[in-house]
Amino acid sequence: MTLRFEVLARDGLARKGRITTPRGSFTTPCFMPVGTRAAVRTLDTADLEALNPSVVLANTYHLMMRPGPEVVQRLGGVHGFTGWSGHVLTDSGGYQVFSLDPKVDDDGAVFKSTYDGSAHRFTAERVVDVQLQLGSDIQMALDVCPPSEAPAPVQRLAVDRTAAWAARARRRFLERGGPDAGAAQFGIVQGGIDPALRAESAVRTVEVGFEGYAVGGLSVGEPRDQMMAALVATTPHLPDGQPRYFMGLGDPIGLVECVALGVDLFDCVLPTRLARHGTALTWEGRLNIANSPFAADDRPIDPAFPASPVARYPRAYLRHLFNVDEPSAARLLTLHNVAWLLALMDAAQEAIAAGSLDQLRAEVADAWARPAESSPR
What we know:
Elements: E1 4-11, E2 14-21, E3 24-28, E4 30-33, H1 45-51, E5 55-59, H2 60-65, H3 69-74, H4 77-82, E6 87-91, H5 94-98, E7 103-104, E8 108-112, E9 119-123, H6 124-134, E10 138-140, H7 152-175, E11 184-189, H8 195-208, E12 212-215, H9 224-234, E13 244-246, H10 252-260, E14 265-268, H11 270-276, E15 279-282, E16 285-288, H12 315-323, H13 328-354, H14 357-368
Parallel strand pairs: 4-14, 5-6, 6-10, 10-11, 11-12, 12-13, 13-14
Antiparallel strand pairs: 1-2, 2-3, 7-8, 8-9, 15-16
Helix pairs in contact: 6-7, 7-8, 8-9, 10-13, 10-14, 11-13, 12-13, 13-14
């Protein structure tokens, strides 16, 4: 296999692990910043090198539309294109495609580009081909991602098509020499919030045989108790000796609760989206830096996180930047938010090794159960 996973420590169901690929090794659990169009919003590659995330995401749909996989491949794949030497995971683009009201059949999905309205078709095989052109270290199989509130027949069809597409994607990946290129491939579990469907989808995905497994279609607006119940129904059917990835989750309470259930990898646009709206992730909960009480506040953005890349600036200065529409404001808060989540995952690793994850869960719950100072919207 081109990807190996080793459990280094356990605390209940939670595990501290090490993932090794031809590109190198990194420890889990970890948070992966989202660079949808081959860039984490407002940051450059030097910023990422300073933050040192283990993995950065890119999106197959968006890079296929602009600038096109041929361009990226000619420039050395995502790594050469961006100058980033760390690990890259490419999402299949399925989530984006299914948000475009596509015409779906058993073979694939036809959709219109959000860029120019042109028509395109995604199949399990096409998505593998594009991701091999992008040169990612970990690629995702194409899945069917219906809304969590979709009726049972829709969820059933999504599970069946996801399983069929997973088998086709795996076959194509092996035929095209994905392992020879140093790539790994993850399958995705669907099933909405139905525990029985989740368990079935997990079993069928594992039967295909991937290097890792992702939980998709959750954290999309459903109540947290339903999300957690669906995850509890899923993880027992995923191999203990392979990585587990919860797609699209970034809120601190959700992260540590899913770590406690044995999840290893996470991604979300939350830290960058909140930053653009002036909201910081802190040990005081969400902090809207644009609020008037911070106009003369000389404290750093999060006194409990002195390692923040923006700890040198008083809150009053950051508020000033937002109030005068200075572009650096979003960048500075993004640096902080990403660093904060990376540090939270480092703390989770340390807690698992020390057998004290329950204490960290309580601390996060206490900080984030407080009323938010304001909404990011």
